[in-house]
Design brief:
Elements (H helix, E strand, L loop, with lengths): L1 E2 L9 H7 L6 H9 L3 E3 L2 E2 L11 E6 L2 E7 L2 E2 L5 H4 L3 E3 L1 H20 L9 H14 L2
Antiparallel strand pairs: 1-6, 2-3, 2-4, 4-5, 5-7
Amino acid sequence: MTATTSDDNRVRLDKWLWAARFYKTRNLAKQAIEGGKVHYNSQRTKPGKLVEPGAKVTLRLGWQERIVIVDDISDRRKGAPEAQKLYHETEDSVKRREDLAWQRKTMQAAQLPPARRPSKKDRRDIQRFREQNGL
């Protein structure tokens, strides 16, 4: 059921987030809203807030922050292609997410694991070093 602005087709924010497939359950969406991880038009809100087309929704999902604009309203959870038609992400948000992902990948590549595990002699040397230096 898709709607524009008629009174009989109003949808709560938690239900819209669930239908747009940002959260697996309405309860998770409700907890995220109450926890301050979701902002509606740059303000904290309640799960019962009615969603309107053109509204800006800011979501924090793990390490990512997404800024999406509501294009359509639905209270039914459908497949991912239909759910993606309910919103579009701002270009600034996409660029920021890609930059952060690139930073995380480069930091991860900089932390190379040791070439081999320490031998028994190496472990004794490490322990002796720690004892001498009070570590």
